[in-house]
Specification:
This protein has about 400 residues and is of the alpha/beta class. Helices cover about 45% and strands about 10% of the residues. The protein has 17 helices and eleven strands.
Length: about 400
């Protein structure tokens, strides 16, 4: 019963101090627990908070009763409230200087089991994601799924980069957390409602927020959401962003928490890459040169064989018996070059591979015919999904 009372007090404090959690945590640390605060009289509160504190009149016993009723109602809806210091509170988030006083968690998995992966990786970026960004977002998640660590993917359930990362995680068998800027009883944007429900019913996945039920998605609410995304993650990856935006804010917060930040470089004249290029240029983020180097930088390792071995095996399964083994190795080399030099032309690839134009062109045509490569009118090459 005492544990429930403390939880209700934390829930009440979350409503009062939601935008200034450090103040509430300082009070809890000073008093020893949240419930003690609600036993203080007017004079004691005035001495503790000061005579002009805007919070003084919100710390009342009725607030605890209302919070207790809210918790009972949430439990019936399958929503857990985990207060700061309780079992199930994310350990990485607790390390931050301004962690939320509590989190509302909607999941089919107990809160204490959501944070078991060795790594948590945030993937964020613009809502107006380009095909280039979308391709790299999916490729990044698929590479993370190929590691031994099988990390937790964290994002904000928004349009563009966020939903791309969440869906790629679910499709790749990785757990994912959607951090919301609304209460736990709603989803924004509404078009993601069905997928949000899928997240809630997928083991290891969850929707979380520190906003109480009934909170709408106002612009001011997204900063709190972004700090949770950054705080939950060992590393933050920015796929694409303008100079201002939620993704940039999350990356800066992650940097302030002393977490690793990575950004996908892009063209200098592409407005969706200006934020990433800025972070890289100012030594806030490391550039993503390749998925392989990203995996190494984060401190993870691929499971089993290398990607090159997997590609060679797939080439053998398609071309085995039809061409010689050395040609298959040359094809694997071609795919490796295209992977490293996106959009490279067939002519430029001659210098990279050392092959004659005639032989290279023949092998490229075979790869294109079997769906390994696609070639546009300018003879620029790109990898098809089959070689992921």
């Amino acid at each position: 019963m005492k544990n429930f009372e403390e939880k209700a007090c934390l829930c009440a404090l979350n409503r009062v101090f939601g935008f200034e959690p450090k103040s509430a945590l300082a009070l809890i640390s000073h008093l020893g627990c949240a419930s003690t605060l609600f036993t203080l009289g007017e004079k004691e509160l005035e001495e503790l908070l000061g005579p002009y504190s805007r919070y003084r009149h919100h710390i009342r016993r009725n607030a605890v009763y209302e919070a207790a009723a809210e918790l009972e109602s949430l439990e019936k809806s399958g929503i857990q409230f985990i207060g700061w210091g309780e079992e199930g509170y994310p350990p990485l988030l607790a390390e931050c200087q301004d962690p939320p006083i509590g989190l509302y968690i909607k999941s089919c998995t107990p809160a204490s089991q959501l944070w078991t992966p060795d790594k948590s990786i945030a993937i964020v970026g613009t809502r107006d994601i380009s095909p280039y960004g979308k391709d790299w977002c999916r490729k990044t998640v698929e590479s993370l799924a190929a590691t031994r660590e099988k990390p937790l993917i964290v994002s904000g359930l928004a349009l563009g980069t966020d939903i791309c990362a969440h869906k790629a995680a679910v499709e790749s068998g990785l757990p994912t957390i959607g951090v919301m800027a609304t209460g736990p009883d709603s989803v924004y944007p509404y078009r993601h409602l069905a997928f949000a429900d899928q997240i809630c019913h997928t083991p290891g996945c969850a929707l979380i927020t520190d906003y109480p039920p009934g909170t709408p998605p106002l612009p001011v609410h997204f900063l709190r959401r972004n700090r949770i995304i950054a705080g939950l993650s060992d590393a933050t990856i920015l796929i694409e962003s303008k100079l201002k935006g939620g993704g940039m804010m999350t990356a800066r917060l992650a940097f302030s928490y002393d977490r690793d930040v990575y950004a996908l470089p892009g063209r200098a004249d592409d407005i969706r890459s200006q934020g990433c290029n800025y972070l890289i240029g100012n030594k806030i983020a490391e550039p993503i040169i390749s998925t392989e180097s990203l995996i190494r930088s984060i401190g993870m390792k691929y499971a089993g064989r290398s990607r090159k071995d997997n590609v060679s095996e797939e080439l053998t399964s398609v071309f085995g018996g039809r061409i010689q083994a050395d040609m298959i190795e040359e094809m694997a080399g071609i795919l490796s070059v295209v992977q490293r030099c996106r959009g490279i032309t067939v002519e430029a690839m001659c210098g990279e591979t050392g092959m004659s134009y005639g032989r290279l062109s023949s092998l490229v045509s075979m790869l294109e015919a079997e769906g390994f490569l696609s070639i546009d009118l300018l003879r620029r090459c790109s990898i098809c999904r089959r070689t992921k």
